[in-house]
Design a protein that fits this description.
By secondary structure, the protein is α/β, with parallel strands linked by helices. It is built from seven helices and six strands. The longest helix has 14 residues, at 130-143. The protein is globular.
Length: 151
């Protein structure tokens, strides 16, 4: 079974890290540069939150703030479910669904922040192991005769 540890080891080192005092417009430019939907907000190697496109639309635009004067600390999200290295992909998918979020925070046993697991990371895992998920059912479907019996 694939785990958070497997997912993180397959991801490149994050290049989407900003400080909490970054101007929102600069954060948006970085989002565009790295072609991701979120930025990891850290200060002195300590995880503080995530700034996402959703945060921009809900906490800047809809609240009438200025992208050129608001800082990321004012508009970022901080409340995300936590997963650990041994948690499975299935556990992660259930956590995303239960918390209605797009991001999970991965921590090691000493509670050190390791990275972000996204819905896209999980979908890549499911698609890469689709043989385990889809092929058996597809083969059974192909083996059925008109009466519905499985050979």
């Amino acid at each position: 079974m694939r785990t958070v540890k497997n997912i993180l080891s397959a991801k490149p080192a994050p290049s989407n890290i900003v400080s909490p005092d970054t101007i929102v417009l600069d954060g948006l430019n970085l989002l565009n540069t790295v072609n991701l939907s979120y930025l990891i907000v850290k200060k002195d190697d300590r995880f503080l939150g995530i700034f996402s496109e959703r945060d921009y639309s809900r906490n800047v635009i809809l609240k009438g703030k200025s992208s050129t004067s608001a800082i990321i600390a004012e508009v970022m999200s901080t409340d995300f479910p936590v997963v650990h290295l041994s948690d499975t992909v299935e556990h992660c998918m259930n956590a995303l669904n239960a918390h209605k979020t797009r991001y999970l925070l991965a921590y090691d046993p000493e509670e050190k922040f390791l990275g972000v697991i996204t819905i896209h990371d999980l979908m890549r895992q499911v698609l890469s192991s689709r043989e385990d998920v889809f092929d058996t059912a597809a083969q059974q479907w192909l083996d059925q005769d008109e009466s519905g019996d499985i050979y």
